[in-house]
Amino acid sequence: MRSTISQMLRQLGVVNIQAMTINEQILDTVRDEAFDIVLLGHNASDKTTGIQLLEEARFRGYMRPTCGWIFMTSDSSQAVVLHAIESNPDYLITKPFTVDELKYRIDALIARKQVLRSIDVAIEAGDHQAALVHCDDVPVYEPCYEIAQRIKATLLIDLGRADEALDILQQHFWDMSDKDTGLCLAKAFISLNRLDEALSLLNDLIEAHPLLVPAYDLLANVHERKGDLVLARETLEVATSKSPLGIPRQMELGRVATYTHELKIADTAYRRSISLGRKSCYRSPDPYLYLANIRRLEMLSADPKDKIELENKMMTLLNLAEYSFPKDVAFKARSALLKAKWCEDNQNNEQAAEFMQQAERINRTLVSPLNLQREMLIVSGDAVPILEEKVDHTVLPDKVNFDPVMSDKVNRLASKHYMAGKYGQALRYLNLAIDYNPTNATVMLNLAQLYLEVARDNEVNRESRLKMVKRFLKLTQKSALTEEEKVRQRQLIYYFTKPLTSLPKGSLHALLK
Q: Where is the Response regulatory domain (predicted)?
């Protein structure tokens, strides 16, 4: 099929084509190279499927705004199509398709990207203020004008200016009744805590578009904010029945079902999350932990003879998660919290205190310590207050002033992105950190490491990346380093003198904080 697509593209006059077999190396290529368009195929029989790569590319932030994505699938089932749409490709085409159809999609995508180019470049650089200005540069007569205004509204919501977004969205939605604009309008209502208006709008959207799954997610959120957890759960049940392949939605269903004491529904949702997570970027120990809590809750009303079996199942799940995710230290703290809760259930206060002390000891070793009181509520399935997600406004501005404190803060954000495998974002934050403080030796070492890893993993622009490694290592030699930094410096210099093929695979070291 790959050769057929390549032949189609050549018939359309496209000459600069890089054809690749579906595998995980595609993500590294997409991360490191600047493509105009990515055509990603999906076959369920592949070891690594296209939909897995699409989901992970979105999760890791590799789907750059300046690059167009066309997802091609021979599986036109509702579950696959809706799951693919959630990763937000520009177009989705079901196989087989004709050269004319492919041409139409590519031409439309190129035309749109050209008009929105300045907006996409600004967003990709993290400069939301510039992106807002460029949104207004798109003329009203352009077919992309509505898209530009929706992007502007989304940016305003992200920047905490939902009232301004509302003015834009209401005018365009009532004129066009576009479902994407409607979703954006609902988000603005929610941000402004105008829940009744959001509720009415989302119900109208679902009635008009029964397969608009993101509307169900927002509707469940509104029901929960209004205190109706039963309606929130029922809404999520409908959403997961329509689009069952999304782990975050299954986890949400499990959470709300636990709050409403529907343990069988929660059990099924967490089991599906574990099964789906075997080949997903959302793979984590969380569903094991929450499923273990379901066993704990079942013990509360179980017969004495059944409690032993449930206890064994709970401990097996926790042990399996710890074995499967040995590097997740935070999970060990959360697991200790659940064991403490279980001991409290059995009025074994002495052992409960020991597990709490264990959780506290582990928590003190974490770079970002947990709020153990809140985590206990989450882990044990007790409803917790909804907290608004804090918007991270530390994005790449055009100019920054010298600010060592901000440099360290942004460097820590880069480290978090690096640990999550989001190397593109990590590099952007490190460059911003060095802008805030050009003498920050920790950031220089982190940049040297990141450029060295990218040069090792990809031949494209390898020489220029190695020059960056050399530059930052040379700068650190003129800096006053801590003992830890000196160790990292010597290690990186050692790696730099070796052939790239001899370097270890994967992370060379956790980034310095």
A: 1-110
The Cα–Cα gap between 229 and 222 comes to: 10
SS3 68: strand
In a domain, 506, yes or no: yes
Helix H or strand E encompassing 111:
helix 99-115
Better-predicted residue by pLDDT, 398 or 195: 195
pLDDT tens by residue, 135-193 = 999 999 888 999 999 999 999 998 889 999 999 998 788 777 789 999 999 999 999 99
Together in a domain, 361 and 455: no
Distance of CA 226 to the CA centre of its chain: 27
Q: Are 333 and 370 in contact (CB under 8 A)?
A: yes
CA distance 273 to 287: 6
- Asked whether 151 and 131 are in contact (CB, 8 A), the reply is yes
Report how far residue 332's alpha carbon sits from residue 336's, in angstroms, rounded to the nearest whole number: 6
Q: Which of 343, 365, 380 is the last residue of a domain?
A: 380
Strand partners, 38: 69
Residue 95 falls inside a structural domain: yes
DSSP state letter for 193: T
pLDDT, tens digit (0-9, with 9 covering 90-100), for 337-374: 999 999 999 999 999 999 999 999 999 988 778 889 88
For residue 311, the enclosing domain spans 304-380
Cβ atoms < 10 Å from Cβ of 53: 25
Residue 356, phi then psi, degrees to nearest 5 = -65, -40
The CATH code of the domain that includes 470 is: 1.25.40.10
Same structural domain, 1 and 117: yes
Closest CA to 159 of 391, 388, 387: 391
Distance CA 450, CA 251 (A): 33
